[in-house]
Amino acid sequence: MDLAERLSFQPRRLGWTINKKRSTDFLRKTRIAKLDKAIYQGERWFVTAALSIMIAVVFLSIVWNFFSTPKGKIYDLLELILGESDDLAVIATVVNVTLWTAICIFGVRTAKQDWPMSKVVQYGIPVSIAGLLFGKAVVWIAPSGLVFSQRVALSLLLWVVMVGSSMAAYSRRHIVLQAMQKAIPEDKLRTHAALGLTIASTFTLFLAVVGWTYAMNNLKTWIDSDMHAGIFESIAIPYWTVTISVPLGFGLTLARFMGHAIFILNGSMDPVPTEEELKAARGEIGADAEFDEFARLVEAEEALMNELESKAWDTATHDPTETDDKDS
């Protein structure tokens, strides 16, 4: 009998004993919890879209300001060095284009370090030309500028902050006094955590009511003026569509604070977020927490399998006569 037959090992895929879901399956089983998770998923999509729009409008505004300005920093520097000249604008343009092309070539070189320099230049020059044409196109499409960009970005920023507060409440990632929690006896920790959430809910309720009153006043002004008042000057966005984010964000935060307080009191939620729960929250936000936990369990299983293989090897290669000789 050869060694393989004596060991009788069956090849198995790594991780065959592990259920990935068990590492992140926490408190999301009831109907209310499933609804809460669905709202959270919608919040994630909204925040992603809002941030994308903010980045786009701010970027386009910067591009427009750069290409629409007849004289830039390079022109002012050359004027300071060379003095006033009829050809100064042409010289400044040549310097700007040269610097931009060099930056594009450097960018391609950074992204593709294994490319030869000739190929880097071959791709860098078209990139610089495309960037210049894009900037000119932005100015041509919006000759008056993107005056609304700052207002749109700030309005979306308020929405992102308020929805982000609600998302942090969902994943239990708001700031807490951990030093005080460590000083609380174990048998009173649930009561302390629930009381803290209740007090936080009181302040959140106050802010939600104040925000709701302010938003409704803006809505009333907008409706009473036949939609001509209560809007921003730079873009026709009513005030209430922005300020309504305050009661909405604080309202969702309030509901989640109170829900967590109830869960903690009835024992279905830990008073302090566990590491597994925080990992799962990070996974739902962006990091793959399931994979991290799964990898940890796989590593533990691999160590166990190595230990079993070592013991099996010792058993398979052990000479029984040695034991007999010792016994005799």
End-to-end CA span: 27 Å
Strand content: under 5%
SS content category: mainly alpha
- Roughly how much helix do the residues carry, as a percent range? over 70%
| Shape verdict | flat
The averaged pLDDT comes out at 78
Q: List low-confidence stretches.
A: 1-27, 284-291
Could you state the order of secondary-structure elements as H and E? HHHHHHHHHHHHH
In words, what does this structure look like?
- By secondary structure, this protein is mainly alpha-helical.
- It has 2 domains: 27-57 and 148-273, no CATH class; 69-141, no CATH class.
- It has 13 helices and no strands.
- The radius of gyration is 32 Å and the shape is flat.
- Residues 1-27 and 284-291 have low confidence and may be disordered.
Q: Key terms for this structure?
A:
328 residues; mainly alpha; 2 domains; 13 helices; disordered N terminus
How are the secondary structure elements laid out?
Blueprint: H1 3-7, H2 31-68, H3 73-82, H4 88-111, H5 117-141, H6 149-170, H7 178-183, H8 189-224, H9 240-243, H10 245-265, H11 275-285, H12 289-317, H13 320-327
Helix pairs in contact: 2-5, 2-6, 3-4, 4-5, 6-10, 8-10, 11-12
